[in-house]
Amino acid sequence: MARRVVVTGLGILSPNGNTVKEAWENTKNGVNGIGPLTKAGAEGLPIHFAGELKNLDVLDYLDKKEARRLDEYSQYGVIAGNQAMEDAGFTPGGEMPYDRYRFGVLVGSGIGGLDTMETEVTKLNAKGFRRVNPLLVPMMISNMGSGYLAIKHDLRGYNTTVTTACASGTHSIGDAYHMIRDGYMDAMLAGGAESPIKMLAISGFLGLHAVTTTDRLDRASIPFDAERSGFVIAEGAGVIVLEEYEMAKKRGAHIYAEIAGYGATCDAYHMTAPQPEGAALAKAMEVAMEEAHVLPSEVSYINVHGTSTELNEKTETLAIKKAFGEEAYKIPLSSTKSMTGHSLGAAGGIEAVYSIMAMQDDFIPPTINYQVPDPECDLDCTPNIGKKADVDVVMSDNLGFGGHNAVLLFKKAE
Q1: H/E/C letters for each residue in 271-335?
Q2: Distance CA 219, CA 227 (A)
Q3: Is the pTM of this model over 0.85?
Q4: Pairing between strand 257-266 and 5-13?
Q5: SS3 content of the chain, % helix, strand, coil (to 5)
Q6: Are residues 170 and 406 in contact, defined by beta-carbon separation less than 8 angstroms?
Q7: Nearest-angstrom CA–CA distance, 408 and 405
Q8: Mind telling me the catalytic residues?
Q9: Strands 159-160 vs 103-108: parallel, antiparallel or unpaired
Q10: What's the confidence (pLDDT) of residue 245?
Q11: CATH 3.40.47.10 in the chain, residues?
Q12: Domain Ketosynthase family 3 (KS3): where (predicted)?
């Protein structure tokens, strides 16, 4: 029999804030966390903006030795994971109401240790192999975020990493949910982390014409706007604690939401472009609703992928229409990437936190800087100003290069 799964802890590092409270309040109020690009040799690049973390000193969260041994993406994932564990009532070295072999970790990353890779390749080319950091491999590999969180909290259960580009965080939470639902684990720490604001990644995305080169901040990340011209690269992490419902209730945990549905499909179409009709994404949405026993008319809000690229919003609009029929025009949706930029593999984790907080506050965050309507994107994108509403069921979707589609469905906790 399928078990119920609930969310009991939240953690986030976002361009909009370094705590859940700060990030969510800024998101509710339409505060733009995107700003001038200062990292990655900014002076030599034709992009002007990025979603950089602000006022973050990792040594406020990690000791100097562990920070030095972790790539930036791992640092972000560990900090957000620590927040989530603390929020759920777990502390390192403290008592654990679970069998540690049944508490797992699944934190995804689209790229992994890019900062380490870029730094050490430069060092290799300039000074030879003997000068390469002996910790290159453990710092570089994309599973170290999950691995180190397990070490930090002595979590000995299922531990792995999903790498499905920009769908990584969403797949991680969905897969973790299934691990608990189907009885393999009792609790999981899950989400995504990324630190991609580096010369190499930006150069690659520029080659794909995927990132915007506008010099106007109010025209940079503009999902659903007819003048959108590419995404704004961002960094961060979003991690949540999932537990089996009865066990969470027994230990007196605060329950934020129930995760009730998960759909995952592949376009099987193109390496970087979404399937134009959105058929596979629509199917993932349908699967998530079927699994949650939710009708299209019961979905209160959709936190969309909304990258501010020409193809993405057209595809998502078509997919939503296929999955929801006439209900598509009645459901408010928004892209919080309008305020954070696109953090690639961390996006699904960050947006899961925002989706859950939307239910907590009965509030739909806006899509900011929306000015020019696109007739091909004619759904309600909650332009510019968020709004109070009864938010009982939230869908969150993310897409990744390779045709990956991942959809989560959250219900308000009963």
Answers
A1: CCCCCCCCHHHHHHHHHHHHHHCCCHHHCCEEECCCCCCHHHHHHHHHHHHHHHHHHHHCCCEEC
A2: 8
A3: yes
A4: antiparallel
A5: 40, 20, 40
A6: yes
A7: 10
A8: 166
A9: parallel
A10: 98
A11: 5-257, 263-412
A12: 2-412
Cα separation, 383 vs 148, whole angstroms: 40
CB atoms closer than 10 angstroms to residue 19: 16
Give residue 414's pLDDT.
Answer: 77
Contact 365, 340 (CB under 8 A): no
CB 364 within 8 A of CB 382: yes
Mean pLDDT calculated for residue range 333-348: 98
What's the pLDDT tens digit per position in 381-402?
Answer: 999 999 999 999 999 999 999 9
User: How is 27-51 classified by DSSP, letter by letter?
Assistant: HHTT----EE--SSSGGGSS--EEB
Residue, of 253 and 95, whose pLDDT is higher: 253
30-82 pLDDT, tens per residue? 999 999 999 977 778 899 999 999 999 999 999 999 999 999 999 999 999 99
Q: Is 213 helix (H, G, I), strand (E, B) or coil?
A: coil
CATH of domain 5-257: 3.40.47.10
Is the Cβ–Cβ distance between 95 and 182 less than 8 Å?
A: no
Structure tokens at 410: 């959250």
3-state secondary structure 142-172: CCHHHHHHHHHHCCCCCEECCCCHHHHHHHH
pLDDT at 349: 98
Read off the pLDDT of each residue in 343-369 and give the average, rounded to a whole number.
98
What's the rounded Cα separation, in Å, for the pair 98 and 105? Answer: 14
The whole-number pLDDT of residue 1 equals 75
- b/e for 205-216, b at 16 or more Cβ within 10 A? beeeebbbebee
- For position 94, what pLDDT does the model report? 82
Kind and range of the H or E run holding 125: helix 114-127
For the record, the structure tokens of 99 come out as 């069998």
- For the chain, give the number of residues: 414
Q: Residues with Cβ < 8 Å from 14, sequence gap 6 or more?
A: 23, 33, 51, 53, 236, 238, 340, 343, 350
- Reduce the DSSP state of residue 91 to 3 states and report it: coil
Q: Under CATH, domain 263-412 is a member of which superfamily?
A: Thiolase/Chalcone synthase (3.40.47.10)
Inter-residue contact 370 to 226 (CB < 8 Å): no
Confidence (pLDDT) at 312? 96
